[in-house]
């Protein structure tokens, strides 16, 4: 005789299977997509007002657009994953696909289809969206962090082309600071403009936090020491003291306040400049990060879309994502963003969106040399911890304020060993 | 003849009388619990549950969106070996201690002035409350501009007044950043002290001051031997509340410095948020948040015992 529990389980299963076909055939009335507000308002508007309306017209499914504040996506994603409720589709960035692996649906089939249709994916994005050989998010585009500078002031000191190496940039910076136009590179606790140049600088001198195995901490090296020494010199000889306390808003304010001649930022700074500070925008240009002795690097910040496991109708959500990533939609939405997102599909390498403003071309160019934070280490929770604790940023910041190279590296190494549980 | 309150209460329903809701409500025990229940339920849901859930989390290796593994006190042991944790502890205690003293002294001064009679007193009281009323997020934006080296009105005054050659980096220099936060927190929190202590001051009978003056007491003596003893209970309670609020201060620091430069202004609340939310280490984040509990508990129990003894 079966127990009461077994009977109840069997009854529920039978009821479920009886109802299942009806659920499967009934399309959801609506689905919600949550994204962090873009600095490019027309991009958000194009989705909310044009694409969502088109999809509803075609399928009858209403797409609700939820926008979170800038920098608030990770918190929102945490509450969605922890409560297993809320939007079916969410924007992810950095290594979120790894961090929320258990809460995300395998979308390898959709990614494969999109790749086939649009010339294949860029290799370097796989590190952040493929977890245990499964695609946990569909890459949308990279928000590049590049050099932004005043062409008029650089010309005043005889620099007509943006310097190719960090050493050359230092030389230009010395001259510019003497002229009253210092540099302003964030060394505080922001979320983008600090890592945007410090990781590339670190990598370009050969520094690494941890090996690919995620167990061997290698930050205590001669290469790191050279990067730290250079950074201290770069800060002392070209910058304002205040950069040590800057968060992400400060460099924009200082740039448009005509206090600094060069910084590291996303292309949104030029978009804002064209709208609100046209005179400064005219004398603003972008360039790739300078190269160091071991090459040239940029940070990868792949904005992607992921499907949450709690979505009541995953098939319908996947169908929407396929539609969204179809060239007919994707191409238009990318164009609306004024080249703010550099797509990871080779089919878009020469997309017309790049023709409108040649000053954005370095953002396309930077894709080839972009690496995720903490590279070449694995993109799991330890990587998040390292970034959230500002291990690398503080190592450089402490050196800039005067601490010895040996001490700052030792502190960073101790922190990383604790984070990666390494010996 | 004094009437004992108990005689005013309605008699309890007599055994055998038919059961009615009204009858039930007439019983003091039930009625008082009924009145208390919304508050108790609110506290259980929004204070007790998060608190005990936080304690539960702090004993786990619990990553976001993953099941937790019980690790006992391992998170606290890890923290004890983390140099940043001790830096954060020093920052928090410095921040709380200095702001509390400044708010206490300033708030008491504010209350003493506001307790005098002068023209426009009510308007002045309303203005002094403004920092407390304005949402912190908004006032912090204003302070961001005030402390910005480029646009700072303070720097402008100092430079144009010939006091200094170039402006200060209020948030870029580690020491100045902490002191800047202390100033902003004091500015925001002082009216709370001021208005609460003013309420205490207004309960002091003028007769006491008159009697003291007739006995030849000076202004200082009147303050020390009349004012202070009477407002001491209020002073202790307002300090206790303020210390609790300041220990948990988040918005101001997060918006102005986010714990920078190089962790110089990180306090428990901001560091706990970074570890719990940004790093996805919910267990460790909860452990950081709970690390202030012993200090707070000692303070609250100590002050409460002192108050009861008084």
Q: Tell me the β content of chain B.
A: under 5%
The strand count of chain B comes to 2
Helix content of chain A: 40-55%
By CATH, the architecture of the largest domain in chain A is named 3-Layer(aba) Sandwich
pLDDT < 50 runs, ≥5 residues of chain B: none
- The tally of helices of chain A reads 19
Approximate shape of chain B: flat
CATH class bucket of the domain at 84-269 and 293-309 in chain B: Mainly Alpha
Average of per-residue pLDDT values of chain A: 92
What is the C-alpha radius of gyration of chain B, as a whole number of Å?
26 Å
Q: Largest sheet of chain A, order of strands side by side?
A: 2-1-3-11-6
What's the CATH topology name of the domain at 84-269 and 293-309 in chain B?
MetI-like fold
Number of helices of chain B: 15
User: By CATH's scheme, which homologous superfamily of the domain at 84-269 and 293-309 in chain B applies?
Assistant: MetI-like
Strand content of chain A: 5-15%
Give structural attributes.
heterodimer, A: 423 residues, alpha/beta, D-Maltodextrin-Binding Protein, domain 2, 2 domains, disordered N terminus, B: 310 residues, mainly alpha, two-stranded antiparallel ribbon, 15 helices, 72% helix
Explain what you see.
The complex is a heterodimer of chains A (423) and B (310). Chain A is built from 19 helices and twelve strands. By secondary structure, chain A is an alpha/beta fold. Chain A folds into two domains: 28-143 and 301-357, D-Maltodextrin-Binding Protein, domain 2 (3-Layer(aba) Sandwich), CATH 3.40.190; 146-299 and 370-419, Periplasmic binding protein-like II (D-Maltodextrin-Binding Protein, domain 2). In chain A, helix 2 (41-59) links the parallel strand 1 (30-36) and strand 2. In chain A, helix 2 (41-59) packs antiparallel against helix 15 (327-336), helix 9 (195-204) crosses helix 10 (222-238) and helix 10 crosses helix 18. The longest helix of chain A has 22 residues, at 4-25. Chain A is globular, with a radius of gyration of 24 Å. The N and C termini of chain A lie far apart (56 Å). By secondary structure, chain B is mainly α. Chain B has a domain at 84-269 and 293-309: MetI-like fold (Orthogonal Bundle), CATH 1.10.3720.10. Helix content of chain B is 72%, strand content 1%. Chain B is built from 15 helices and two strands. In chain B, a hairpin with a 7-residue loop joins strand 1 and strand 2 (69-70). In chain B, helix 6 packs across helix 9, helix 9 packs across helix 11 (219-247) and helix 13 runs antiparallel to helix 14 (282-290). The radius of gyration of chain B is 26 Å and the shape is flat. The relative contact order of chain B is 0.12. The chains are: A alpha/beta (423), B mainly alpha (310). At the A-B interface, helix 3, helix 11, helix 17, helix 18 and helix 19 of A face helix 13 of B.
């Amino acid at each position: 005789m079966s127990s009461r529990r077994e009977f109840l389980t069997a009854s529920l299963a039978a009821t479920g299977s009886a109802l299942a076909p009806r659920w499967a055939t009934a399309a959801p009335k609506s689905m919600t997509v949550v994204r962090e507000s873009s600095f490019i308002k027309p991009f958000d508007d194009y989705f909310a007002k044009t694409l969502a309306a088109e999809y509803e017209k075609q399928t009858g499914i209403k797409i609700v657009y939820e926008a979170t504040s800038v920098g608030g996506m990770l918190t929102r994603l945490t509450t969605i994953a922890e409560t297993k409720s809320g939007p079916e589709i969410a924007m992810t960035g950095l290594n979120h696909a790894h961090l929320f692996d258990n809460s995300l649906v395998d979308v390898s089939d959709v990614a494969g289809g999109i790749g086939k249709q649009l010339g294949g994916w860029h290799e370097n994005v796989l590190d952040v969206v493929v977890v245990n050989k499964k695609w946990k998010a569909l890459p949308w585009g990279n928000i590049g962090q590049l050099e932004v500078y005043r062409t008029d002031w650089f010309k005043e000191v005889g620099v007509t082309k943006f310097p190719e190496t960090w050493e050359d940039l230092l030389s230009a910076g010395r001259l510019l600071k003497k002229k009253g136009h210092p540099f302003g590179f964030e060394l505080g606790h922001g979320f983008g403009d600090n890592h945007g140049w410090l990781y590339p600088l670190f990598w370009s001198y050969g520094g690494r936090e941890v090996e690919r195995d995620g167990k061997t901490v290698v930050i205590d090296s001669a290469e790191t020491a050279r990067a730290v020494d250079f950074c201290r010199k770069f800060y002392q000889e070209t910058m304002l003291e205040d950069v040590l306390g800057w968060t992400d808003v400060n460099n924009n304010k200082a740039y448009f306040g005509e206090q600094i001649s060069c910084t590291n930022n996303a292309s949104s700074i030029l978009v804002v400049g064209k709208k609100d500070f046209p005179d400064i925008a005219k004398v603003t240009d972008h360039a790739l990060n300078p190269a160091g002795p071991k090459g040239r690097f940029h940070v990868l910040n792949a904005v992607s879309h992921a499907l949450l496991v709690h979505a009541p109708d995953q098939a319908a959500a996947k169908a929407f994502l396929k539609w969204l990533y179809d060239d007919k939609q994707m191409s238009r939405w990318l164009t609306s963003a004024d080249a703010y997102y550099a797509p990871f599909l080779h089919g878009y390498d020469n997309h017309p969106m790049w023709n409108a403003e040649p000053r954005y071309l370095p953002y396309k160019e930077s894709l080839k040399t972009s690496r995720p934070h903490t590279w070449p280490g694995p993109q799991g929770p330890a990587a998040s911890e390292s970034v959230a604790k500002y291990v690398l940023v503080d190592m450089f910041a402490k050196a800039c304020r005067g601490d010895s190279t040996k001490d700052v590296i030792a502190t960073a190494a101790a922190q990383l060993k604790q984070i990666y549980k390494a010996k | 003849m004094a009437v004992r309150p108990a005689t005013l209460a309605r008699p309890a329903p007599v055994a055998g009388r038919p059961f009615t809701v009204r009858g039930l409500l007439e019983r003091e025990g039930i009625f008082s619990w009924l009145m208390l229940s919304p508050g108790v339920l609110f506290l259980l849901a929004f204070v007790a549950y998060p608190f005990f859930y936080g304690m539960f989390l702090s004993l786990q290796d619990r990553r976001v969106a993953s099941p937790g593994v019980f690790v006992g006190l391992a998170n606290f042991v890890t923290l004890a070996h983390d140099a940043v944790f001790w830096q954060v502890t020093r920052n928090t205690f410095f921040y709380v201690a200095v702001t509390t003293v400044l708010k206490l002294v300033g708030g008491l001064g504010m209350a003493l002035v506001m307790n005098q009679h002068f023209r426009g007193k009510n308007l002045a009281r309303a203005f002094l409350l403004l920092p407390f009323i304005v949402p912190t997020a908004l006032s912090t934006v204003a302070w961001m501009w005030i402390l910005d080296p480029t646009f700072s009105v303070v720097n402008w005054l100092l430079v144009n007044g010939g006091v200094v050659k170039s402006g200060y980096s209020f948030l870029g220099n580690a020491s100045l950043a902490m002191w800047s936060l202390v100033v902003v927190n004091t500015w925001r929190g002082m009216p709370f002290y001021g208005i609460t202590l003013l309420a205490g001051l207004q309960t002091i009978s003028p007769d006491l001051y008159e009697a003291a003056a007739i006995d030849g007491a000076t202004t200082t003596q009147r303050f020390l031997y009349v004012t202070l003893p009477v407002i001491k209970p209020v002073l202790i309670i307002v300090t206790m509340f303020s210390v609790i609020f300041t220990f948990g201060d988040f918005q101001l620091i997060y918006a102005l410095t986010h714990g920078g430069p190089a962790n110089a202004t990180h306090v428990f609340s901001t560091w706990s948020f970074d570890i719990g939310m940004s790093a996805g280490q919910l267990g460790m984040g909860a452990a950081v948040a709970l690390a202030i509990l012993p200090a707070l508990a000692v303070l609250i129990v100590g002050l409460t015992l002192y108050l009861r003894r008084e």
